[in-house]
Automatic annotation (TrEMBL):
Organism: Hemiselmis andersenii (Cryptophyte alga)
GO cellular component: voltage-gated calcium channel complex
Taxonomy of the source species: Eukaryota, Cryptophyceae, Cryptomonadales, Hemiselmidaceae, Hemiselmis
Record PANTHER family: VOLTAGE-DEPENDENT CALCIUM CHANNEL TYPE A SUBUNIT ALPHA-1
Name used for this protein in its record: EF-hand domain-containing protein
Spans through the membrane: 13-31
Glycoprotein keyword on record: yes
Length: 162
């Protein structure tokens, strides 16, 4: 079926084009994986940010018990903001965001009227990084909770205005 010269030309073209496409596809996959891993290395929170959080917390926790009163939450966030720490900068992005985070912190506090060092660090860290790193079920639950805190913040803003 067909000519011998045509079959050689078809085979050569098929082989050359196929090989070039597969090589380009292979290189594209390698580059994509390289950039994905490179993006993972540039994490939003660094050790310096956590050290800054620890220092600002120590300034407010004069008893060294690992807890501070809720009324010092804004002061802590403002100090972190002045340090250009993402733990404070994300929360103070807007007054509404601050209110929503404050509602979350107050709702999750285990001790009466006091914030715990580790719990607050985790909460602020989740606001900086986002809930994408959580397992899917936890991510959905967190998004529902954040929506509820946003509604509470909106209500608190409205009741404060009137």
């Amino acid at each position: 079926c067909g000519s011998a010269a045509g079959s050689f030309i078809y085979f050569d073209l098929f082989f050359l084009l196929g090989a070039n496409i597969l090589v380009n596809l292979f290189v594209a996959v390698l580059l994509e994986n390289f950039f994905n891993f490179q993006m993972q290395d540039t994490f939003v929170l660094s050790e310096d940010h956590l050290v800054s959080y620890q220092k600002r917390w120590a300034e407010l926790d004069t008893t060294n018990k690992g807890v501070i009163p809720v009324n010092k939450f804004r002061e802590l966030i403002e100090r972190l903001y002045r340090d250009r720490n993402p733990l404070g900068m994300t929360v103070l992005a807007s007054e509404f965001k601050f209110r929503a985070v404050r509602m979350e912190v107050i709702a999750n506090k285990p001790k009466g009227g006091e914030l715990v060092f580790c719990d607050l660090a985790i909460t602020l860290g989740l606001h900086v990084v986002g809930s994408h790193g959580l397992p899917y079920a936890d991510m959905l639950k967190r998004q529902e909770e954040l929506a509820q805190f946003a509604r509470l913040a909106a209500v608190s803003k409205l009741t404060h205005v009137y």
